[in-house]
Design brief:
Two copies of one chain form a homodimer.
Chain A lengths: L22 H17 L6 H7 L4 H8 L2 H19 L8 H20 L1 H13 L7 H26 L8 H13 L2 H6 L4 H4 L3 H16 L4
The structure holds a DNA duplex.
Chain lengths: 220, 220
DNA sequence: CTCCTCAAGTACCGTACGGTACGGTTCTTG
DNA sequence: CAAGAACCGTACCGTACGGTACTTGAGGAG
């Protein structure tokens, strides 16, 4: 069992500490995610989650507090898998790094266009009007944050190796992001068909990186 | 009154033809939008709309069919105001056009960061998981579509006047969009504070346009 | 075997919402 | 002025959901 049981309400009244989830609880979160991907927030009712995962509603409330707690747990749970998704960078040579950037671009697009990512983003955005909703920040931290941190890291390294030249790594990353993603993410969030928005992944990624080098590459 | 009354169900069973809305109906849509901006989709109940606009629920259903019809009408109504927002382009000289691009960038950011735009996008995105929901396409057509059409237009003109050089105006516009908007839109949709995401409008717009010229500007 | 804990399944409660029906009032039209 | 339509306000209905309580059964410890 997890540390924060009924006995200690704890300061922030959290139910599941970070990542010490029972396998059973992970199963539940998994099927909840599947349910969300399938039918959107409307389909994410406590009854459906319970029946889909062969678990009682009472257990849901015992483990996650309430529906919002469960959703937060879903976000954190999914976020814990994102970090490993982006492969290790390769700064071996200028051209190797450029190739890596293309791979990074493809990876980024794949992640953003993934069913689960889209579903969670839709959920968080749908709740974002409510100021008290922690989902937006949670998603930013768990998804966007880790990728940005990683990217800023290898951009700085590339600059030190004189593959690129810029002032502010963060701003530079945002430009890179803009060149890669454009309005694709929002269009997907709005429900446009994936094949329609993203015909030819690879080519788009390559042009994006080429343009990025036009802006920040070092002349030789 | 509008043409499609109870007498004629019409092919698509639409209730309000495009834009022949009674002033009263416009008032209702206006307060519904205010309600949505205020409290998100959760606050957009038929009862609240009725009471907020001093109108009976019965009238709502008579005019708009059902809740979805009303929301669609809100989108179309708001969309009808977007077109005029973006000022007229100025192709008088190369530098005038560049200045206009900066203005365009600012305008685009203003529109995307507007309360109403954010609220409607959140609403449409929240429903996008439902395949049958027409809100996403509706929003894309009414918002994104008109701006893109306009932009593609003046990009083509600029290319003919030899201010810019490119192959595909559409793709070029998407790059321009990416440079201007980056991940700002999604972050705002997720609920991040406007002041935090968009500190210094003007400067960002100028850098974006400068970078755009690095990619597509003609040398002289 | 017995007790105890945990959790599944189900039944239940209060509430809130979408949608409908109705009485009363105003406004238009002849 | 009189007849009728439009419409507001409200009460109402069915349903669906979040959350709680209770019963049953399966393991685990003594």
């Amino acid at each position: 069992m997890q540390s924060a049981s009924v006995s200690e309400p704890q300061g922030t009244s959290e139910f599941v500490r970070d990542e010490d989830l029972t396998p059973r609880q992970q199963e539940v979160l998994e099927s909840a995610l599947a349910l969300l991907v399938e039918g959107g927030e409307k389909a994410l009712t406590t009854a459906k989650i319970a029946s889909a995962s062969n678990c009682s509603k009472e257990s849901l409330y015992k483990w996650f507090g309430d529906r919002d707690g469960l959703i937060s747990a879903m976000m954190a749970f999914q976020g814990s898998k994102v970090g490993a998704a982006v492969g290790q960078e390769d700064l071996g040579s200028a051209s190797a790094f450029k190739n890596y950037l293309v791979r990074f671009a493809c990876e980024l697009l794949s992640v953003l266009a993934g069913d689960t990512s889209l579903a969670l983003n839709r959920l968080a955005i749908g709740q974002a009007s409510n100021d008290a909703s922690p989902l937006g920040p949670l998603l930013i931290e768990n998804g966007r944050g880790v990728i940005e941190a990683k990217a800023v890291g290898f951009l700085r390294s590339a600059e030190q190796k004189n593959y690129l030249t810029f002032d502010d790594a963060r701003q530079t990353y945002h430009v890179l992001y803009g060149l890669i993603v454009r309005d694709v993410h929002v269009r997907l969030l709005l429900g446009e068909r994936r094949e329609f928005v993203m015909k030819n992944f690879e080519r788009d990624a390559q042009t994006a990186i080429a343009q990025f080098y036009q802006l920040y590459g070092v002349e030789e």
